[in-house]
Structures are given as structure tokens and as C-alpha cells.
Write a sequence for this structure.
């Protein structure tokens, strides 16, 4: 693949970014400044990778020329280095191609994760609680921050629903492939006969939306407050702290009651509402180009069965990429790094395939 035209455009863009970063008024708009600095850093990294590739290619050409030298010793030394240089050039070409892929505008955003119990009754709710703990432990181990927004507990320590925000570096890029139906196969603690049951929980990972992404007009919102119900103590249940927000144009409803502060609950509800509306907006855009949509990783739709957790065999299978791991005990304890890396690699491979065809 000829990278030269793309690299030339990157060089021109980098020159423009250099001028913008030198502008003393840049930080008057903090959000714009962050975007410029982030693009400047990524463009600089791409050009550095290209320079590294060019150097490796020149070394390879030089060695090939020296391998034909009349000096037998020099020719042998040059010939010995050629395989390693060929591998290095191939590796750098792939890394450069990956770096030149169009970035996803959402990948550096924080994420809002919604988990809901699916089919399977109380066992599905227990599984939803397991997933909730799994993601919280992963966030902790990865240096991310998880903040609970809303939850609805069930009997036997389960969760009918849990919504939380994960913030940190490139959170959405790490968690985006978790969206879909998760299936569990195990013997429930309540099963006297020792039979394996199958239950499901649904996970949705939404990029956190900002005010500029989704404009929420006051006339489009109906905000209601009421007394919180369920567990939470006397302070929660005796004040009008529960907040329900209806987005009239779409019929989307969000309710938050976990906190004691009505204001805090309203802020959480608005954050969840923005994320859901952004997801809806992006999904509608994707459907316009459904024929071109990647299929290997899937659409990330909530209806798509993506993974099976088989506890009797300590087996975890991701159906989208055909990956099976036999360390479910560690994964359910938050060790998701291997699975996330494999999903990211598969997505990059699919995008590279598309870019080479187009």
C-alpha cells in the first residue's frame, strides 16, 4: 500500500497544528485546546513512525546491496541481517497502516455502562451483579474510576439493573466491545438437583455525551421528583430525592434515586439521558450505512449474544471472534485485559481489511 499521499496530508496538517499550538489564545477555549493538543500528539506519533519505517527500509535496501559485495565477509554479514530487517519493515508497515486509520471520535471518552438482568429470573439478576462486580474490579485494576449512577437490587444479592460511569484514559475504547447479551451457564445456588441453568444479562456501553453533542431543550424535558423507594436508609426514603426525566421527543425515560441529593440525582439522570440519546443518534447514522458496517466484531447491539460464561468448565467464549479462554475464574474477578486486547486486535484487522479494499 502506498502511504505517501496520506503521509503528505499528515505533514501538512501537522504544520497547521504547530501554528495553532503556538497561538497564545488557544487555551481561551479549553475544549478546543484539548482537541488540538491531542491531535497534535497523535499526528506527531504517526510521522515519527513513518520516519522509523523509512529508516528501516533504507537499511534493508543497503543490506541487499551489500549482500552482493565482492567482500565475502561483508556480504555474509549483510545477508544475515536481511531477514530481521524484512520482519521489522513489515511490522512497521502494519503499525503505520494502523496509525493512519481514521480515529473513532468516541474512543477517548468516558463510558456509561448499563447492565440489566435478562432471562433466567433470580439467577439472571445474580449474574448481572457478577458482571457489575467484574467491571468494577477491572476498572480498579486498570487505573480507571467507576462511579455508581443508579441501581435496582433484587433478592438473593442480585441486581435487576445497574448503571455506572467509568472514567479515565480511553475508557470507551477499552469497554466498547462489551455491549450485547452475556450468557451464563452454571448450577445456581438454589438448585437442589445440581442441574446447569442458562441465564442472560444485557450490557450496554455508551460513550459519555457532552452538552455540545446533544442539546437538551427545557421544553423537551419533563422532570418529576418523588420520594425514593427501596433500600437506602431513612435519609433517602423520607425526602423527595428521586428524579425522573422524560425526553418528550423520543419518549426516553431516566430515573435516578440512589443519592440523597435531588440535585445530584438530576445531574446523574441528565448524564444518562445524554448518553442514551447520543447512542440513538449514532445508531441511526450507522443504519444509513448498514451495508458497509463491519460484521466481525458485530454492531454492539443489545440484542446480540456476544459471550458465554461456562462456570462448570471454567470456560469463557466470545462468539464474535471465536476466542475461548479457560480462565473464567480470573475474568469474573476483573481480569479482562486478554479479552479486551483480542477484541481490539480483531477490530483493527477488520478495519485494515476494509481500508485495503477501499
Amino acid at each position: 500500500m502506498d502511504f505517501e499521499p496520506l503521509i503528505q496530508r499528515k505533514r501538512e496538517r501537522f504544520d497547521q497544528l504547530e501554528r495553532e499550538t503556538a497561538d497564545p489564545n488557544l487555551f481561551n477555549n479549553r475544549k478546543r485546546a484539548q482537541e488540538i493538543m491531542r491531535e497534535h500528539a497523535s499526528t506527531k506519533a504517526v510521522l515519527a513512525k513513518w520516519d522509523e519505517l523509512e529508516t528501516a527500509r533504507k537499511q534493508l535496501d543497503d543490506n541487499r546491496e551489500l549482500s552482493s559485495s565482492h567482500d565475502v565477509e561483508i556480504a555474509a554479514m549483510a545477508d544475515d541481517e536481511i531477514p530481521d530487517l524484512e520482519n521489522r519493515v513489515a511490522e512497521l508497515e502494519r503499525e503505520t497502516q494502523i496509525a493512519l486509520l481514521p480515529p473513532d471520535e468516541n474512543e477517548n471518552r468516558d463510558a456509561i455502562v448499563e447492565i440489566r438482568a435478562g432471562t433466567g429470573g433470580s439467577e439472571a439478576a445474580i449474574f448481572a451483579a457478577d458482571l457489575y462486580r467484574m467491571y468494577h474490579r477491572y476498572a480498579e485494576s486498570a487505573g480507571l474510576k467507576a462511579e455508581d449512577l443508579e441501581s435496582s437490587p433484587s433478592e438473593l444479592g442480585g441486581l435487576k439493573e445497574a448503571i455506572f460511569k467509568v472514567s479515565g484514559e480511553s475508557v470507551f475504547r477499552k469497554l466498547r466491545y462489551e455491549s450485547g447479551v452475556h450468557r451464563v451457564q452454571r448450577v445456581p445456588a438454589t438448585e437442589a438437583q445440581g442441574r446447569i441453568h442458562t441465564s442472560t444479562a444485557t450490557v450496554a456501553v455508551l460513550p459519555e455525551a457532552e452538552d455540545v453533542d446533544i442539546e437538551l431543550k427545557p421544553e423537551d424535558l419533563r422532570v418529576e421528583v418523588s420520594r425514593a423507594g427501596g433500600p437506602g436508609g431513612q435519609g433517602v426514603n423520607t425526602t423527595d430525592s428521586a428524579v425522573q426525566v422524560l425526553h418528550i421527543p423520543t419518549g426516553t425515560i431516566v430515573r435516578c434515586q440512589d443519592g440523597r441529593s435531588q440535585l445530584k440525582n438530576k445531574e446523574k439522570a441528565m448524564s444518562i439521558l445524554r448518553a442514551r440519546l447520543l447512542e440513538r443518534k449514532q445508531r441511526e447514522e450507522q443504519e444509513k450505512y448498514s451495508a458497509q458496517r463491519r460484521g466481525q466484531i458485530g454492531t454492539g447491539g443489545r440484542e446480540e449474544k456476544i459471550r458465554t460464561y461456562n462456570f462448570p468448565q471454567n470456560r469463557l467464549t466470545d462468539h464474535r471472534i471465536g476466542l475461548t479462554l479457560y480462565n473464567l475464574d480470573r475474568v469474573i474477578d476483573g481480569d479482562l485485559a486478554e479479552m479486551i486486547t483480542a477484541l481490539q486486535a480483531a477490530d483493527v484487522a477488520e478495519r485494515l481489511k476494509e481500508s485495503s479494499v477501499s
Observations:
- Confidence is low (pLDDT under 50) at residues 231-238, 289-301.
- The longest helix spans residues 30-66.
- Residues 317 and 323 are 6 Å apart (CA to CA).
- The chain is about 45% helix and 20% strand.
